[in-house]
Design brief:
Helix content: 40-55%
CATH superfamily of the largest domain: Response regulator
Structural class: alpha/beta
Oligomer: single chain
């Protein structure tokens, strides 16, 4: 770890990160003093090594550290939600957690969080990010203008425009499809947290810290849903179907006749019948006078939730 030596006999007037290409330490300006006696030095850590540096506030500092030599930089947050009540609640929660984090920072823990911007819509979020340059965005999954999946759309766009910016999406949906879209461009710096977890402030703070450092955070409930879905899909007979057969089965599920399916896919009716027979065989739907194989195939398709 790069360090700077500060003599005890000198008074520190300022402390800023060094721009020198050689080091990466702390640029410390010393006020000249007369008759300064040589004394043991104090080693000040590199300001970029946040996790190794104590947070020093005015009038309160860890034992052995000079006053005002170091103050750890906060994690700057932008909160995006169309509900002013939710924004205020998340901000209050982070403020409460931040007081605990300041104590933890003194022991080498993560830096405290600071809310530096707020947004109530997707467009406003983009404007605030450009204006204040946060470290992490905490956004609701649905906001104006469409109330669809604006939070995920923001995460995707911000990965291109601000690749170092972390994004935590708050959602009430445990559907793994949202998570898969969020992480489609990579998992680094992205988090997905269910709003139920906000009852425990530490969950959100953990997610923020992980994405700020380029990691990822996924709500455990969503992970369980994803694993369960993959287990079902792996054991489903639908995995035996070809892409064309799956396409035809999806058309059957919409109520189309063989002739209509042939017109839709630009193939002959006999080809459609051949594919349907292959579907029945692969799904183990044998001739049964008491059941319609076509209906049973559709039920299998719908239960598996295969996208059309």
């Amino acid at each position: 770890m790069t360090s700077t030596i500060v003599s005890r006999g000198a008074s520190v007037t300022s402390c800023t990160p060094s721009s020198s290409p050689i080091g990466g330490g702390v640029a410390v300006v010393l006020a000249p003093q007369r008759h300064r006696l040589p004394e043991p030095s104090i080693r000040v850590p590199d300001p970029r090594a946040r996790s190794a540096c104590p947070a020093v506030s005015s009038g309160e500092r860890p034992c052995g550290w000079p006053r005002n030599v170091w103050r750890v930089q906060s994690t700057r947050i932008v909160i995006a939600d169309d509900s002013a009540l939710v924004r205020a609640g998340v901000e209050a929660m982070l403020a409460s957690a931040g007081s605990c984090e300041r104590d933890a920072a003194a022991d080498g823990g993560p830096p405290p969080v600071e809310v530096c911007g707020r947004a109530s819509s997707l467009d406003e979020l983009y404007d605030v990010v450009e204006r204040v340059g946060p470290d992490v965005v905490v956004t609701d999954i649905r906001m104006p203008p469409r109330h669809d999946d604006e939070g995920i759309a923001a995460a995707i766009r911000l990965r291109q425009s601000h690749p170092d910016l972390g994004v935590v999406v708050l959602s009430q949906y445990a559907d793994p499809a949202y998570l898969q879209r969020l992480l489609a461009g990579g998992s680094s710096g992205r988090g997905y947290l269910l709003k139920d977890r906000l009852a425990t402030p530490g969950e959100l703070v953990t997610a923020i810290e992980l994405v700020r450092r380029g990691g990822s955070f996924v709500d455990p409930t969503v992970v369980e849903q994803l694993v369960a879905r993959q287990r079902v899909e792996a054991s489903s007979p639908l995995t035996r179907l070809t892409a064309r057969e799956t396409e035809i089965l999806a058309a059957i599920a919409t109520g189309k006749s063989n002739a209509a399916i042939g017109e839709q896919l630009f193939i002959g009716q006999r080809a459609v019948e051949k594919h349907i027979n292959a579907i029945f065989a692969k799904l183990d739907l044998h001739e049964d006078p008491d059941a319609n194989r076509r209906v049973r195939a559709v039920l299998l398709f719908l239960r598996a939730g295969v996208p059309d």
